[in-house]
């Protein structure tokens, strides 16, 4: 079955702009999580959605937001971009559920460069 | 404070040897721990999950142990191959709701 698809793969934006990244999870998966990966901070959790509801949020400013649609597809938005937002943004899908001890399947990521 | 620590220095080993990677955590009581492999520019790939009531788990050449008393997990690759060269990440989920907290990762280099 198809894996997690993230679009676009690469983005270059200017400081102050906003950006929207998209993630299509594996069919049947209802949980979508977003992570930011940078050389200095590693992989950091942004937020997680399950059945269109945000269940968890990481320690990121309000400029980072997301949503999930009824088909489980998810988008994340970053407004007023800063140079420090340059990173690999990864989306992960999993079955989800009330308490889910299952693995996460990651997409290839979107490489965002802010200039 | 809560921390997950992995060896930040790269681990260099020769082909055919066993690689052992360490993951230590503090101020967490995870019900399970996961290991992922990540190649440059790509997303992490799930390898193994071990639960708190499991001491050891195996999958082909991979073996993971989980010691909740020591707060440590060890990840072993036996008969290592150059294709095993990658960064290996351990992760735990303190909430049980897919909020994975990752270690910094250890880069493994297997030379022929």
List SSEs of chain A in N-to-C order: EEEEEEEEEEE
Please tell me the overall pLDDT of chain A: 93
Number of DSSP E strands of chain A: 11
Largest interface: chains, residues each: A-B, 30 and 26 residues
Fraction of residues in H or I helices of chain A: under 10%
Number of helices, where a helix is a run of at least 4 consecutive DSSP H or I residues of chain B: 0
How do you describe this structure in short?
With 115 residues, chain A is mainly beta. Chain A has no helices and 11 strands. In chain A, strand 5 (42-50) and strand 6 (53-57) form a beta hairpin.
Task: Walk me through the topology.
The complex is a heterodimer of chains A (about 120) and B (about 110).
Chain A: E1 5-7, E2 10-13, E3 19-24, E4 31-38, E5 42-50, E6 53-57, E7 64-68, E8 74-78, E9 87-94, E10 105-106, E11 110-114
Parallel strand pairs in A: 2-11
Antiparallel strand pairs in A: 1-3, 3-8, 4-5, 4-9, 5-6, 7-8, 9-10, 9-11
Chain B: E1 3-6, E2 11-14, E3 19-26, E4 32-38, E5 45-51, E6 56-59, E7 62-67, E8 72-77, E9 86-92, E10 101-102, E11 106-111
Parallel strand pairs in B: 2-11
Antiparallel strand pairs in B: 1-3, 3-8, 4-5, 4-9, 6-7, 7-8, 9-10, 9-11
Describe what this molecule looks like in 3D.
The complex is a heterodimer of chains A (115) and B (112). With 115 residues, chain A is mainly β. Chain A has strands at residues 5-7, 10-13, 19-24, 31-38, 42-50, 53-57, 64-68, 74-78, 87-94, 105-106, 110-114. Chain A is built from no helices and eleven strands. Chain B has no helices and eleven strands. The termini of chain B are far apart. The A-B interface holds A 4, 31, 33, 35, 42-45, 48, 50, 55-56, 58, 88, 90, 92, 94, 96, 99-109, 111 and B 31-32, 34, 36, 41-46, 49, 51, 89, 91, 93, 95-105.
């Amino acid at each position: 079955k198809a894996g997690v698809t993230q679009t676009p793969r690469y983005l270059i934006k200017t400081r102050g702009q906003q950006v929207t990244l998209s993630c299509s999870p594996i069919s049947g998966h209802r949980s979508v999580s977003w992570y930011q990966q940078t050389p200095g901070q590693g992989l950091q959790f942004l937020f997680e959605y399950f059945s269109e509801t945000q269940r968890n949020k990481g320690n990121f400013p309000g400029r980072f937001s997301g949503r999930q649609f009824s088909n489980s597809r998810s988008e994340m938005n970053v407004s007023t971009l800063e140079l420090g937002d340059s990173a690999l943004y990864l989306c992960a899908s999993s079955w989800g559920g009330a308490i889910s001890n299952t693995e996460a399947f990651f997409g290839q990521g979107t490489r965002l460069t802010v200039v | 404070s809560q921390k997950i620590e992995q060896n930040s220095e790269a681990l260099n080993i020769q082909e055919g040897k066993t690689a052992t990677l360490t993951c230590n955590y503090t101020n967490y009581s995870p019900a399970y721990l996961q290991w992922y492999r990540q190649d440059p520019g790509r997303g992490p790939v799930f390898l193994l999950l071990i639960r708190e009531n499991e001491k050891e788990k195996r999958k082909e050449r991979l073996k993971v142990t989980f010691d909740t008393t020591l707060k440590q997990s060890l990840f072993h690759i036996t008969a290592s191959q150059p294709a095993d060269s990658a960064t290996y990440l351990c992760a735990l989920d303190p909430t049980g709701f897919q909020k994975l907290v990752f270690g910094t990762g250890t880069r493994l280099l297997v030379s022929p």
